[in-house]
Q: What sequence folds into this?
C-alpha cells in the first residue's frame, strides 16, 4: 500500500473542529519564473486537493529536474510537495521537502523563489505549534516580497503572518496585517486569496469576542467565497464559514433567528457543491453541522436524520477524525430524548473512534484557544456522567462496581490521551510488561479518584474490599475557585489565609470518605487528581485541627497504572547521582542552601556529585550512561510549563530540556536497575495551571523513572534542604515507603515553628510508585 494512504484517515485532524486558520499553502500560486508544464500540473493538483498525487507525481519530476540541472524548477516542485505532505499530516516529510527547497534558493539567490519557500515554511511551523518561529520566518519572507514590485506572494505571506500573530494573541497586529493582506489581494484581483484572508479575519473577530464585527465579516466572507468558481476548496470554505456562523448563533442571542438562517443557507450551499463534486467528506461536514444547528433548535428528529447521513459519508470516506463528532452528536440527541441506553452506545462509539485519531490532535491545529481537554474532554466526561448516574441507581453490587469501573476507565482513557498530547509522544503513556494496575497492589492503600463534573463532584474510592461511589453536591466552578484560592494562599507562604479554603476542600474531598479509610485500615492514599485538583497538594487539606498528611501518607499518579511496584530498598544498596547548581546563572538567583543540601544527602548514600560548573548537560547525561544510579537528585532552578518545550532544569551550561532529561534517565530503563526515584529540588510549575501540573505529574513517565519527588511551586531552599534530607534519612534508616518517608519529613517541618507554614512543605508531592 502507498504509505501516504495510511495517513488519509488521520489527515488534518484539526479540520474535525473546523475552527482553524486557513493558510495560504494549499492553493498557492506557482513561483513567478515560468516553470515547465509539470510544475504547473503539480501546483494545480495541490490547488484541487489531490495531495497524494502531488507527492507521487512530484518525486520523479524532482529527480528529472535535478538531472537536468534546473534548480528553480526543483524548488517549485518541492514547495507544493511540502504543502501536500503537511496537508496529509506528514510533517517530517514536509519539513524535509521545504528544507531542501530552502537550501537551493539560498544557493541560487532568487528572491521570489525564497519568498515562496518562506511562505510555506512559516505555515508549516505554525501548524507544528511553533508560532514564534513562524513569525520570524514569515517576517523574513514579507521583507523579501516587498523588494519585488507586484510580488504574487506578499498577500499570501501576510495572511500566514496574520495567522501566526493571532495564535500569539497579538490581535491588534494581526488585524493590521490582515487588512493589508486583503487590500493587496483585492488590488491584484486574487479572489481566492482574498477569500482566505477574509475567513481568517472572521476567526480573529470571533477569537476577540467581538460578535458584531464577526457578523459583519462573516457576511463579506460568505459573499466572496460564494463568488469563487465551484471547487472542493469552495465547499470546504463554505463549511468553515457555516461552522463559524453556528458558533456565533450559539453565543449571540440577539442575532439568533437571522444568523441561524445564514448558517442553514451556507451549509446547504456547501452540501450542494460537495454533492456536485462528489466530495463526500465535505458533504459529511455540511450535513453534520446542519444537524448541530437543529440540535441547538431542539429539532431532534431533523437533527438525527442529518447526523445519520453525516455518519454514513464519514464512514464511507474513512474519516475517523470527523466520525466521532457525529457519533457524539447522536449521543447528545439520544440523551436529550431520554434514550439513555442508546446515548451510552453512541458515546462509546465516539470514544472508540477517538482512539484511532487522538494521537494526532496536535497536528495542524494552528490556533488552539482551547486545550486538548476542552476539545475532546466533553465526549469522555458526558459518557462518564451517564454511567455514574446509572451506577448510583444500581442496587446489585457486582453490576454497580462494573459500571463504576467502566466510568473510571473512560476518564482514564482521556488522561492517557491528554498525556500523549501534552508530550506529543505516544510512548509516554505506553505500558510495558512490568506495569501493574494500582488496583492489584492495595495493601493498606486506597486509590482515590475524584471526578469533577459540572453539577457535582463524584468520588471513586478503591479499597481492598472493593470500590465505593460518593456524590458531593458541589459544582465544578465552585470547586475550581476554592482550589485557586488555596493555591494562591499557600504560595504566599505566610499567614493563615489558606485555612478556610483548606478546610472547605477537606469537607468536600475527604470527609465523605473518611469513615471508609479508617475502617479499611488505610495508611496511604494514592490520588489520581483531575483538572484544577492537579495544582494543589492534598497534604495541605485541613480538618480544623490537623493537616491531612498528619494522618495519611499521600502520593499522586497521573493515571491508574504505574511502573513495577517495588520498594526503593528492595533492590539492595542505593546509589545517588546529584546534579546541583548553587550559583546564580541564566537570570536565576543563587541557591545558597544547595551546598548544605548536597552535603547532607551525599553522606546518606554513596554516589557521585556534579556541582555548579561540573553540572553540565553533557556530563549529567554521560554519568548515567556509564553507571547505574537508584536516585537522580537535581537541585537547581527549573520550570514546568504548560508547553513541554518550555520546561527545563538549569545546568551550568544552559537548560536541560525535558527531552534531554528523558535521554539521560531513559538509558537506565532497560537495565536491571532502572532509576527508581527522580528528585527535583527547587523546581516549580506555572501558577495554577493544570496543564503544567499534568506535565509535572508526567515527568517520571516521560523521563523513564519509576517515581519522582517534585514541588508544585518554588520553595525556600533552606526548607527544601531540610525536607529532602529528612526524606532520604527516613528511607535509609527505616526502609519506609517513599510516601510514608515524605509524610514523616513533612510532619517534621510542621512541628518546627520556623517551617510550620504549609507553603514551605506541602508543595512537595510524590509522583508515581509510592512504595
A:
Amino acid at each position: 500500500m502507498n504509505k501516504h494512504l495510511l495517513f488519509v484517515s488521520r489527515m488534518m485532524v484539526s479540520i474535525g473542529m473546523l475552527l482553524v486558520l486557513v493558510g495560504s499553502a494549499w492553493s498557492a500560486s506557482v513561483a513567478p519564473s515560468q516553470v515547465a508544464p509539470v510544475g504547473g500540473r503539480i501546483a494545480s493538483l495541490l490547488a484541487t486537493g489531490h495531495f497524494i498525487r502531488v507527492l507521487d507525481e512530484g518525486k520523479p519530476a524532482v529527480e528529472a529536474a535535478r538531472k537536468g540541472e534546473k534548480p528553480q524548477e526543483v524548488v517549485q516542485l518541492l514547495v507544493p510537495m511540502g504543502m501536500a505532505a503537511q496537508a496529509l499530516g506528514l510533517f517530517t516529510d514536509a519539513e524535509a521537502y521545504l528544507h531542501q527547497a530552502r537550501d537551493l534558493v539560498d544557493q541560487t539567490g532568487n528572491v521570489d523563489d525564497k519568498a515562496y519557500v518562506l511562505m510555506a515554511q512559516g505555515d508549516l511551523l505554525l501548524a507544528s505549534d511553533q508560532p514564534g518561529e513562524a513569525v520570524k520566518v514569515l517576517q523574513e519572507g514579507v521583507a523579501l516580497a516587498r523588494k519585488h514590485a507586484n510580488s504574487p506572494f506578499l498577500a499570501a505571506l501576510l495572511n500566514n503572518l496574520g495567522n501566526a500573530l493571532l495564535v500569539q494573541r497579538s490581535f491588534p497586529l494581526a488585524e493590521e496585517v490582515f487588512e493589508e493582506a486583503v487590500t493587496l489581494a483585492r488590488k491584484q484581483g486574487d479572489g481566492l486569496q482574498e477569500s482566505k484572508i477574509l475567513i481568517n479575519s472572521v476567526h480573529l473577530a470571533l477569537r476577540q469576542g467581538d460578535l458584531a464585527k464577526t457578523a459583519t465579516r462573516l457576511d463579506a466572507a460568505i459573499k466572496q467565497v460564494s463568488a469563487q468558481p465551484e471547487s472542493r476548496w469552495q465547499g470546504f470554505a463554505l463549511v468553515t464559514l457555516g461552522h463559524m456562523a453556528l458558533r456565533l448563533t450559539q453565543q449571540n442571542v440577539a442575532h439568533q433567528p437571522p444568523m441561524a438562517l445564514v448558517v442553514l443557507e451556507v451549509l446547504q450551499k456547501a452540501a450542494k457543491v460537495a454533492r456536485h463534486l462528489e466530495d463526500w467528506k465535505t458533504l459529511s461536514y455540511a450535513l453534520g453541522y446542519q444537524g448541530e444547528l437543529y440540535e441547538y433548535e431542539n429539532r431532534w428528529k431533523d437533527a438525527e436524520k442529518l447526523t445519520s447521513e453525516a455518519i454514513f459519508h464519514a464512514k464511507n470516506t474513512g474519516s475517523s477524525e470527523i466520525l466521532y463528532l457525529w457519533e457524539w452528536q447522536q449521543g447528545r440527541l439520544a440523551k436529550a430524548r431520554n434514550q439513555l441506553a442508546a446515548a451510552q452506545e453512541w458515546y462509546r462509539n465516539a470514544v472508540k473512534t477517538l482512539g484511532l485519531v487522538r494521537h494526532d490532535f496536535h497536528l495542524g491545529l494552528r490556533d488552539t484557544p482551547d486545550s486538548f481537554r476542552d476539545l475532546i474532554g466533553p465526549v469522555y466526561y458526558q459518557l462518564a456522567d451517564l454511567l455514574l448516574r446509572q451506577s448510583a441507581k444500581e442496587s446489585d453490587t457486582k453490576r454497580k462496581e462494573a459500571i463504576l469501573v467502566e466510568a473510571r476507565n473512560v476518564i482514564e482513557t482521556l488522561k492517557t490521551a491528554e498525556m500523549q498530547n501534552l508530550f506529543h509522544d505516544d510512548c509516554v503513556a505506553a505500558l510495558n510488561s512490568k506495569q501493574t494496575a494500582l488496583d492489584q497492589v492495595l495493601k493498606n492503600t486506597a486509590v482515590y479518584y475524584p471526578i469533577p463534573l459540572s453539577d457535582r463532584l463524584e468520588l471513586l474510592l478503591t479499597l481492598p474490599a472493593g470500590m465505593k461511589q460518593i456524590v458531593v453536591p458541589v459544582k465544578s466552578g465552585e470547586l475550581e475557585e476554592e482550589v485557586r484560592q488555596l493555591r494562591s494562599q499557600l504560595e504566599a507562604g505566610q499567614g493563615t489565609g489558606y485555612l478556610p479554603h483548606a478546610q472547605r476542600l477537606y469537607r468536600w474531598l475527604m470527609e465523605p470518605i473518611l469513615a471508609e479509610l479508617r475502617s479499611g485500615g488505610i495508611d496511604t492514599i494514592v490520588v489520581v487528581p483531575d483538572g484544577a485538583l492537579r495544582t494543589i497538594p492534598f497534604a495541605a487539606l485541613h480538618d480544623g485541627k490537623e493537616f491531612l498528611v498528619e494522618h495519611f501518607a499521600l502520593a499522586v499518579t497521573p493515571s491508574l497504572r504505574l511502573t513495577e511496584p517495588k520498594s526503593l530498598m528492595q533492590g539492595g544498596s542505593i546509589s545517588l547521582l546529584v546534579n546541583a547548581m548553587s550559583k546564580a546563572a541564566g537570570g536565576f538567583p543563587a541557591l545558597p542552601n544547595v551546598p548544605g543540601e548536597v552535603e547532607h544527602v551525599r553522606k546518606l548514600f554513596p554516589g557521585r556529585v556534579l556541582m555548579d560548573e561540573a553540572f553540565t548537560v553533557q556530563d549529567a547525561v554521560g554519568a548515567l550512561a556509564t553507571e547505574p544510579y537508584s536516585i537522580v537528585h537535581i537541585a537547581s532552578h527549573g520550570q514546568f510549563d504548560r508547553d513541554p518545550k518550555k520546561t527545563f532544569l538549569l545546568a551550568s551550561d544552559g537548560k536541560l530540556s525535558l527531552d534531554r532529561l528523558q535521554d539521560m534517565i531513559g538509558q537506565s530503563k532497560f537495565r536491571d536497575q532502572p532509576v527508581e526515584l527522580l528528585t527535583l529540588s527547587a523546581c516549580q510549575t506555572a501558577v495554577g495551571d493544570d496543564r503544567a501540573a499534568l506535565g509535572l505529574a508526567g515527568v517520571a513517565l516521560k523521563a523513564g523513572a519509576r517515581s519522582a519527588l517534585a514541588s508544585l511551586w518554588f520553595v525556600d531552599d533552606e526548607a527544601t534542604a531540610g525536607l529532602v534530607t529528612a526524606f532520604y534519612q527516613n528511607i535509609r534508616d527505616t526502609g519506609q515507603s517513599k510516601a510514608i518517608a515524605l509524610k514523616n519529613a513533612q510532619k517534621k517541618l510542621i512541628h518546627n515553628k520556623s517551617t510550620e507554614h504549609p507553603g514551605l512543605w506541602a508543595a512537595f508531592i510524590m509522583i508515581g510508585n509510592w512504595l
User: Anything to note?
Assistant: Residues 1-18, 26-36, 431-435 have pLDDT under 50 and may be disordered.
